[in-house]
Amino acid sequence: MEQSALQLSNQGATSHKEHRLLDGDTK
């Protein structure tokens, strides 16, 4: 269960990162 939560959190962070990169914000 813990691993699943971590995976979901990781996925969310990656998704957010990609969105920022697509938006032109690499900070």
Automatic annotation (TrEMBL):
<feature type="region of interest" description="Disordered">
    <location>
        <begin position="1"/>
        <end position="27"/>
    </location>
</feature>
<protein>
    <submittedName>
        <fullName>Uncharacterized protein</fullName>
    </submittedName>
</protein>
<feature type="compositionally biased region" description="Polar residues">
    <location>
        <begin position="1"/>
        <end position="14"/>
    </location>
</feature>
